[in-house]
Amino acid sequence: MNQCALCASELSQNPYKDGENAFCCNGCLTVFRIVGSIHNFREHPLFQEALQAGIIANPQLVEKIDSQPSEKVKCHLHVEGMWCPSCAEAIRLILMRKDGMISCLVDYATDLAAIIFDPKAISKAQIIASINKMGYSASEFFAAEKSRVSRSLWLRFSVAVFCAMNIMMFSYPLYIAHFGIATDGFELALGWFSFVLSLPLISYTAWPMWKRWNVSLRSGSFGMETLVLIGILTAWVVSTYHLWLHKTSGLYFDSMAMLVTFVLLGKILEKKAKFSAKETLLRLTRCIPKKGCKRLTNGEYSYVPLKEIIPGDIIMARLGEKIVLDGMVCSGEALVDEAVMTGEARLVRKFCGSTVIGGSILKQGNLIIEVTKDQHKSLLGQILTLVEEDFSLKTTPQYIVDQIVRIFVPFVLCLSLWMGISYGPLRALVILMIACPCSIGIAIPLAHSRLLYLFAQKGALVRNRSRLYRLAANPLFVFDKTGTLTEGKFQVLNGIEQLSQDQQAVLKGLATHSTHPICLAITEFIHAAAANVENVSEILGRGMVSSYKGKTYLLGSEKLMAEKEVIVTSSQLEETVVYFACDKTCLATLHLGDRLRERLPRVDGVILSGDTHSLVSHVAKKCHFKWGKGGLDPLEKREEIKTLKQQGQVVVMVGDGVNDAPAMAAADLSISVVSATDLAVEVSDILMTTEHLDALPTLCTLTAKCQAIIFQNLFWTFFYNGIGIILACMGLMNPFFAALAMACSSLCVTLNSLRLR
Q1: Which of 91, 216, 402, 746 falls 20 to 30 Å from 181 in CA-CA distance?
Q2: Strand 314-317 versus strand 137-140 pairing type
Q3: Is 350 helix (H, G, I), strand (E, B) or coil?
Q4: CA angle 466-469-470, nearest 5°?
Q5: At a CB cut-off of 8 Å and minimum separation 6, what does 360 contact?
Q6: Is pLDDT of 415 > 60?
Q7: Which residues contact 491 (CB under 8 A, 6 or more apart)?
Q8: For residues 682 and 293, what is the distance between their CA atoms, to the nearest angstrom?
Q9: Which helix (H) or strand (E) holds 74?
Q10: Cβ contacts of residue 311 below 8 Å, gap of 6+?
Q11: What is the C-alpha to C-alpha distance for residues 719 and 745, in angstroms, rounded to an integer?
Q12: In what order do the strands lie in the sheet with 137-140?
């Protein structure tokens, strides 16, 4: 053998050996000992990585791999430290200038960055390092630390409040001296005290603004923080200059302090309502099983990682286990709970030739399954991919203030510079102070915080406020049925009242021997003590047989009754029907199903469900909705949502389960009910904390009122600023009155926001 057993390079006279295999270097020997037993080991990721890292010495193989088209890699990053939508846009612009970047979406509302890149040109570590160099904190969403940044923001705000309160106290003698009232001559000392307290304000508390300024210079995307920072810096420089000249009439440390404090307050209000999609992707990932019981070449079954199971492999699913991948039953018979994927509350019988869905759970029996789809193409894998894509597209809407700021900021900067050159720095300072009052920063957050409070009173917790405006657009509500409009609990509707107390005791005694949902519902419904029945046997998919005091008792389907020659009357209803019989006499016909919730909403709505079409249509009629469509799997629900959106509808999806997650992610806004699964809660924009959904129309009305108040706040702020800028340019306003005007503007915005009822 003249070639290396791993990389096929020519061997030297003294090769490295391991049994019959010879290697050109120690690196090849080490890698072979790890991957050599794997079929087609040269395609293994470890082999590829070792080759790229130079551990395997074969330039021809490296050149061959480099010449192959690279695969796109998608990653989600958690980005902390963004202060406005302009931050997200700046990050996107800077990253897209780098080689290897294919696409980049950064969402300010969720702190999520969805990035697609070429791994040969740039690595994930380089992308994270680039974001960190901008002054933000990027990490993989598995390892993001949100609390650290929140504590930092609270600490900066606390320092700002402490300094501002003391500076305002020190400024009191300066104000009364300004109006000609005699003081004891401590103004200069108080001015120096204010200067000392201004140092942490201009440095530590304003540090995020300095970082934002740096990013603005690099990206050319300027936000309101630019005006705020320039105003703060100008006020500090002018005040320090006057203090150095022993003048106390031109000190504006108090205005600077209040400006910093109000801006930080606005950011805290935003942070409290901000939703992170990190947990959603974590929940989705955890829903996918990590291992499956696969049949090996020697015929034995062993648990292997999911990535090692491919279409055509044979897997086993045992009682109580989760079916790991989509497939077809080769042998065995079982009852499977597919509710988590389809929303269907009834157990589904599976036998040879039946298809099974990955993520469903075996409630009775065992199955041998031939895999038909890998983990990426399975239904659960597609749900993960689609929800990721929909979150990437669900970016923060650009408020009108963000669009105005793009023109307003450069205009004010140029105007203040021209006025400063023509009339001195004092007039430039007044323009900057009147142009960037904190009312601009709190116009939207204050109205939203009031709206969030009113939503909470109605039993609705808002998790993503950037989507709330959709409720004001006369939306179409799309409801899941099971667990959303109904109680989601399989229970006895009627039939047991036909039985005597002794017969109910026998029925309960028979039902206690099974964990089937029908038996559990019967056991819970009957309060009498259970009889001690004997010789209980369960016939999979049909029912149960037992004996008591010499008589044979049956509980099961019409098919079981026919096999035991018991005459029953077929039911034409949509509910689940089982029969209870003694010997050959039917004692009772039991109807089981799911009850509608109380206080359902009177809205413009439709139903999409996995239940039968006739039952869904019946429920839609009872709820006074437009229509209902049944028999839909999770991906079909998502397609229905997309179709409604293409028709121009604003769609709000209300659901409760994993099967609703793709539709909820694709909708304009999603609401999860109080009994929702963890995944549905994480995907939702609003979480209902009450079982009653009749508050939905009120939420729409409140949102429409909030939108009107927001536009009033913005109109007042910019109108007020416009008048103030004109007066400042004419020299009719000094910094003292500019600071007073700033406080009045903020007070007006605050009072207007409190009008929301």
Answers
A1: 746
A2: unpaired
A3: strand
A4: 105
A5: 322, 323, 336, 337, 338, 340, 341
A6: yes
A7: 521, 524, 525, 592, 593, 594, 595
A8: 30
A9: strand 73-80
A10: 371, 372, 373, 374
A11: 10
A12: 101-107, 112-117, 73-80, 137-140
CB 219 within 8 A of CB 94: yes
- Residue whose tokens read 């050599």: 36
Residue listed under structure tokens 């890292």: 53
How far apart are alpha carbons 54 and 705 in whole angstroms? Answer: 64
Joined together, the tokens standing for residue 449 give: 């915080």
Where helices occur in 360-494 by DSSP H, the ranges are: 379-393, 400-423, 425-435, 438-457
Dihedral Cα 159, 165, 166, 169, nearest 10 deg: 170
Alpha-helical runs (H) found in 477-632 = 501-511, 517-525, 558-563, 613-622
**Per-residue pLDDT tens for 129-150?**
888 888 788 877 655 444 444 6
Residue 512 to residue 524: CA distance in whole angstroms? 10
- 735-753 vs 425-435: helix crossing angle, rounded to 10: 0
Q: Does the pLDDT value for residue 278 go beyond 50? A: no
686, containing H or E segment: strand 686-688
Q: Give kind and range of the element (H or E) at residue 478.
A: strand 476-479
**C-alpha to C-alpha distance for 132 and 218, rounded to whole angstroms:** 14
Helix, strand, or coil (residue 491): strand
For residue 60, give the H/E element and its range: helix 59-67
Q: Which of 649, 654, 710 is nearest to 474 (CA)?
A: 649
pLDDT in tens, 452-484: 778 877 878 777 767 788 888 889 999 988 778
Q: Is 211 exposed, middle or buried (0-12, 13-18, 19+ CB in 10 A)?
A: middle
Cβ–Cβ under 8 Å, residues 238 and 247: no
Query: How far out from the chain centre does Cα 33 lie?
Result: 43
DSSP H/E element including 3: none
Cα(663)–Cα(635) distance, rounded to whole angstroms?
8
Average pLDDT over residues 238-254: 77
Which residues have C-beta within 8 Å of that of residue 233, sequence separation ≥ 6?
202
Place of tokens 């109605």: 458
CB 703 within 8 A of CB 469: yes
State the pLDDT at residue 274.
46
- The dihedral sign for the CA sequence 241, 246, 247, 253: positive
* Whole-angstrom distance, CA of residue 685 vs CA of residue 661: 12
Residue listed under structure tokens 């142009």: 435
Neighbouring C-alpha atoms within 13 Å toward the C-beta of 2: 1
User: For residue 606, what pLDDT is reported?
Assistant: 92
Residues facing residue 305 across a β-bridge: 291
Q: Which of 295, 670, 284, 639 is nearest to 477 (CA)?
A: 670
Q: Can you point out the beta strands (E) in 277-422?
A: 291-295, 301-305, 314-317, 327-337, 348-350, 355-356, 361-371
650, 476 Cβ separation under 8 angstroms: yes
Say how far apart CA 158 and CA 165 lie, in whole Å.
11
**pLDDT higher for 368 or 514?**
368
C-alpha–C-alpha distance, residues 257 and 236, integer Å: 10
Amino acid found at 345: A
In this structure, of 42-51, 357-366, 572-581, the range with the lowest mean pLDDT score is: 42-51
HSE at residue 310, side-chain half, CA atoms within 13 A, is 1
70 CA to centre of own chain: 30
Tokens of 642: 């997309």
Q: What is the pLDDT of residue 731?
A: 81
pLDDT at 580: 93
Quick check: helix, strand or coil at residue 231? Answer: helix
User: What pLDDT digit, counting tens, does each position of 52-93 carry?
Assistant: 555 555 545 544 444 554 567 777 787 877 766 667 777 888
| Phi/psi of residue 627, nearest 5 degrees | -160, 170
**Six token digits for residue 650:** 């604003």
Distance linking the first and last C-alpha atoms of the chain: 86
Q: Give phi and psi for 332, each to the nearest 5.
A: 100, 170
Q: What does the pLDDT average to over 387-406?
A: 56
